Amino acid sequence: MGKDIFSGRYTTENDKDIVVFMIGMRINKRLAIHKWLPVFLAMPPMIKELHTHQEELGFLGMESFFGLRTTVMIQYWSSTEALLSYAKGKKHLTAWKAFNQKVGNNKAVGIYHESYQVKKGNYESVYGNMPLYGLSKALSHIPIEPHLNSARKRLKGAESNNRA
After folding, report:
1. What is the top-level taxon of the source organism (predicted)?
2. Are 77 and 138 a contacting pair, CB within 8 Å?
3. Nearest 5°: phi and psi at 162?
4. Model confidence over 141-161: pLDDT tens digits?
5. Are 129 and 36 in contact (CB under 8 A)?
6. Nearest 5°: CA angle at 10, between 7 and 13?
7. Which one-letter DSSP state was computed for residue 16?
8. How many alpha carbons fall within 13 Å on the CB side of residue 44?
9. Which ranges in the chain are annotated with CATH 3.30.70.100?
10. Residues of 52-64 as b/e, b for ≥16 C-beta within 10 angstroms?
11. Rounded Cα gap, residues 94 and 101, in angstroms
């Protein structure tokens, strides 16, 4: 996807249940490169697989952030079932097994993840003069019209649409 800037204010549809999955690692001992580098390098093949087979896996999109010690990837999934199915897949299980063999309980590197099931109508977003980013890359990106002008309206809008 390009980095075209969309002038004005945009939001996303919120008419689908989604799963927000955050995953990352923390380098606890910077000099223990032999422990944390394999963990770091395990992610790119999985990310490639997710983007290559996006629709069939139920993967909607992601953003990544890198700090001095901690990385985080925010992923959007179509369902908990899709996320759990990927976790049981060959590429992920291979990486998980390698982590446990190489790192285990060693304090040099830590990993974490958090999963959130979000029901339709219970999330909202706004993007002003931005390229497609985060949830707007994962769901329908739409201009904000008067009936969606505030966070409250965007949240209530989905609620009233669900009743119709």
Report:
1. Bacteria
2. no
3. -70, -25
4. 999 999 999 999 998 755 555
5. no
6. 150
7. S
8. 4
9. 18-118
10. eeeeebbbbbbee
11. 11
Give the type of residue at 38.
Answer: P
Residue with tokens 């790192």: 103
pLDDT digits (tens, 9 = 90+) for 55-70: 999 999 999 999 999 9
Considering only CA atoms, which of 43, 83, 93, 46 is closest in space to residue 66? 43
pTM of the model: 0.88
Q: Is 124 helix (H, G, I), strand (E, B) or coil?
A: coil
The single-letter code of the amino acid at 65 is F
Which residues is 61 bridged to in the sheet?
Answer: 76
CATH 3.90.1720.10 describes domain 18-118: no
Rg of the chain over all Cα atoms, to the nearest angstrom? 18
Which structure tokens are listed for 9?
């204010």
121: left (phi over 0), alpha (psi -120 to 50) or beta: left
Element (H, E) at 12: strand 6-12
